[in-house]
Design goal:
The protein is an alpha+beta fold. About 45% of the residues lie in helices and about 15% in strands. The protein contains 6 helices and 5 strands. The strands form 2 sheets. It has a 3-stranded mixed β-sheet with strand order 1-2-5. The chain has a two-stranded antiparallel ribbon with strand order 3-4. Strand 3 (about 60) and strand 4 (about 65) form a beta hairpin. The termini are far apart.
Length: about 130
């Protein structure tokens, strides 16, 4: 299986616990979260709409809601992309192991995640808070 994922979604998937914008979004996110844990899944990392976004009700004209919000989302992606080789297609398990090593403190995720509307519910953030 080959997935296309936004940079910031590499963090989101690690904190996902079933919340979402609507039922279709949650179902899609659950499936992608399942697939990303399989050894035979590969991932291309992007800073544009991906396999998660395709089920998001906020995706309008291939943008996240509006220009301002879309710019914010791309900036979140670019923080993650700046830490990895974005030209590479990754083995999913290897990529998530690498991301976990890079983003392993609250400080390391603040630039990409601090203004996220899911910050309070995110299990990834909670885990980092507990590691302090």
């Amino acid at each position: 299986m080959k997935l296309k994922l936004r940079g910031h979604h590499l963090l989101c998937l690690q904190g996902f616990q079933g919340y979402g914008y609507d039922e279709d979004f949650v179902e899609n996110m659950c499936e992608i979260n399942r697939l990303r844990k399989l050894e035979d899944t590969s991932i291309k990392v992007v800073n544009s709409p991906d396999d998660i976004c395709k089920a998001c009700p906020n995706l309008v004209d291939n943008k996240c809601i509006d220009d301002k919000n879309n710019e914010k989302i791309i900036a979140m992606d670019n923080v993650v992309l700046s830490k990895i080789d974005s030209d590479k297609t990754y083995n999913s398990v290897d990529l998530f192991n690498e991301i976990s090593q890079i983003f392993n403190t609250l400080e390391s995720v603040e630039e990409s995640c601090l203004n996220c509307s899911w910050w309070e519910q995110c299990l990834f953030v909670k885990k980092l808070e507990n590691n302090r």
